[in-house]
Amino acid sequence: MFANIAILCAILILAGAFMWLKPSPRDRHLNTLRTAALTAGFKLDSIRIPDTSIEGRLAEKSSLITLYRLLHRFDKDKSPRFTVQRTTGVSSAFLPDGWKWADQHRPNEAVTQHLHEVLLTLPAAYLVLDAQPDGVGLVWDERGDASALPAIRETLERLIEQLSF
Question: Which of 11, 49, 91, 103 falls 20 to 30 Å from 20 in CA-CA distance?
């Protein structure tokens, strides 16, 4: 009897380990979505941003999230460098309500005005905008499917156009 219980426990432990290795539905969704993004010409990066929740601000936590990027070479003298993110806390100066600077870099006043206009038009699913000398990127909630990628591309191309004036 004891041997049967021991064998049953061993089998259940092994089955549990294999079930733990199986990707969750969310993991499968993200894999499909990110593969489609790579096929569509996006570059995927990870970016660390501050946690804007009350607990995150108090503990100075940050999150590592996926950034969908379009590569673009800006002119050397006009290359932007900034990251903005949605927040439920206090908004940053010169940005619309609900947005804050997520890094120490600030663009010039003309770029900030264009950025302000772009941020006002973004859907709530878009959480972070990032601009670097080699391109622009966007973080979104990844709840939709690959049909959302053309709208993301359009947003990033519009941002490139605004930053290249």
Answer: 49
Residues 120-132: tens digit of each pLDDT: 999 999 999 999 9
Q: Where are the beta strands (DSSP E) in the chain?
A: 43-50, 62-71, 82-86, 99-101, 126-132, 135-140
What confidence tens digit (pLDDT) does each residue in 29-87 have?
A: 999 999 999 999 999 999 988 777 667 666 777 788 999 999 998 887 778 889 999 98
Going edge to edge, which strands form the sheet with 126-132? 43-50, 62-71, 135-140, 126-132, 82-86, 99-101
**Token duo for residue 2:** 């004891």
Give the pLDDT confidence score for residue 68 in this predicted structure: 97
Q: Is 94 left (phi over 0), alpha (psi -120 to 50) or beta?
A: left
What is the distance between the alpha carbons of residues 119 and 122, in angstroms, rounded to a whole number? 5
Between CA 62 and CA 47 the distance in angstroms is: 10
Q: How far apart are CA 127 and CA 51, in angstroms?
A: 12
